[in-house]
């Protein structure tokens, strides 16, 4: 009889503390493989496996691509790589980012749901924005169990709240009850998969693999989504939109994916960058025009000097208007944006977490 022997966990802000507490509750003979994604900076090595190995009886490590799954082990997604699950083993790939993250929570959840169906337990912990919601939907669609940390118990309640809003969650518990709950679920028999795999989930997982075989027959978002009016912040391609139970998200042809909230944040970041670039260009234009006006007067070309001075005054007036508009705008923190700057680590050697 099959059991819930695949546990996938997703978290971001506040995740190190939550994971440290959780793994301390799990037994050393846990008859399940635990795979987890914590959003971390791509530029720094993650010490999360060492932290988790010290915090509980289960050994944790960054897996190699193709490594076999074994019970009683914790597989931690490495920096700048997606962690995916296939029948009996893992894939570690540098696929397209999702919600601006690599590793990302949703690809792990979808791949586990597609490959192991009802055997999967998906767990969404503390974190910003709405990462994990789409992946947890896939877990439920394929017959798995959805577990969410009680939002009031989370350091950052956004991810748990989003999952509760859009997914028919099976269990919502505080962190102190999560370890015993997972232990019980692992011992619970599971009925075999009762229907064919979701073609949509399979296609989205394939978009992340970026291997030779998938590139020979690239998955198309048109199989499950329709073109939108928006461009991909990562590559500029057309985004295809998909709405599931009111949850709106987007994916481009090359595989970059966004929820509506993450896309809005990324657009705000792009707009901010564009405004500062425009300000720089105007200031440089005004400076160069003043310089050209001075040289023209030195040569006695008064009409040219007047023309350059007028151009400089126009640019300076535009600079003043643009700078005032930018400084008067609402703080970007009021509308949560894409990947935030990683907060200072509270524990020496702790991986930097990004929203």
TrEMBL record:
Biased composition (Low complexity): 329-355
Disordered, as annotated region: 325-355
UniProtKB keywords: Hydrolase
GO cellular component, one term: cytoplasm
InterPro entries named among the record's database cross-references: CheB_C (IPR035909), Chemotax_prot-Glu_Me-esterase (IPR011247), Sig_transdc_resp-reg_Me-estase (IPR000673)
GO biological process: chemotaxis
Organism domain of life: Bacteria
Gene Ontology terms, MF aspect: phosphorelay response regulator activity; protein-glutamate methylesterase activity
Domain (CheB-type methylesterase) ranges: 1-189
EC number(s) from the headed UniProt entry: 3.1.1.61
Entry-linked Gene3D superfamilies: Methylesterase CheB, C-terminal domain (3.40.50.180)
UniProt name for this protein: protein-glutamate methylesterase
Classification lineage: Bacteria, Pseudomonadati, Myxococcota, Myxococcia, Myxococcales
């Amino acid at each position: 009889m099959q059991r819930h022997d695949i546990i996938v966990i997703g978290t971001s802000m506040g995740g190190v503390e939550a994971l440290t507490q959780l793994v301390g509750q799990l037994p050393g003979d846990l008859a399940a493989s635990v795979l987890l994604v914590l959003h971390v900076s791509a530029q720094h090595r993650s010490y999360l496996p060492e932290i988790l190995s010290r915090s509980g009886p289960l050994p944790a490590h960054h897996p190699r691509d193709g490594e076999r799954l074994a019970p009683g082990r914790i597989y931690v997604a490495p920096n700048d790589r997606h962690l995916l699950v296939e029948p009996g083993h893992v894939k570690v790939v540098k696929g397209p980012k999702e919600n601006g993250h690599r590793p990302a929570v949703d690809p792990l959840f979808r791949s586990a749901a597609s490959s192991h169906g009802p055997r999967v337990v998906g767990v969404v912990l503390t974190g910003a924005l709405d990462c994990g919601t789409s992946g947890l939907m896939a877990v439920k669609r394929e017959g798995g169990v959805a577990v969410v940390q009680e939002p009031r118990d989370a350091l950052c309640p956004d991810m748990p709240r989003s999952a509760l809003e859009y997914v028919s969650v099976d269990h919502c518990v505080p962190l102190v009850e999560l370890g015993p709950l997972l232990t019980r679920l692992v011992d619970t028999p599971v009925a075999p998969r009762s229907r064919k795999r979701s073609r949509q989930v399979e296609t989205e997982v394939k978009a992340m693999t970026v291997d030779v075989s998938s590139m020979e027959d690239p998955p198309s978002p048109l199989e499950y989504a329709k073109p939108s009016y928006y461009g991909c912040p990562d590559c500029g391609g057309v985004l295809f939109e998909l709405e599931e139970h009111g949850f709106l998200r987007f994916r481009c042809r090359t595989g970059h994916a966004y929820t509506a909230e993450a896309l809005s944040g990324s657009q705000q970041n792009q707009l901010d960058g564009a405004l500062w670039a425009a300000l720089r260009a105007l200031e440089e234009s005004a400076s160069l025009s003043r310089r050209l006006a001075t040289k023209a007067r030195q040569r006695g070309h008064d009409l040219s000097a007047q023309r350059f001075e007028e151009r400089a005054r126009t640019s300076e007036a535009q600079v003043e208007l643009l700078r005032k508009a930018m400084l008067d705008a609402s703080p970007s923190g009021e509308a949560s944006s894409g990947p935030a700057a990683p907060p200072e680590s509270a524990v020496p050697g702790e991986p930097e977490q990004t929203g």
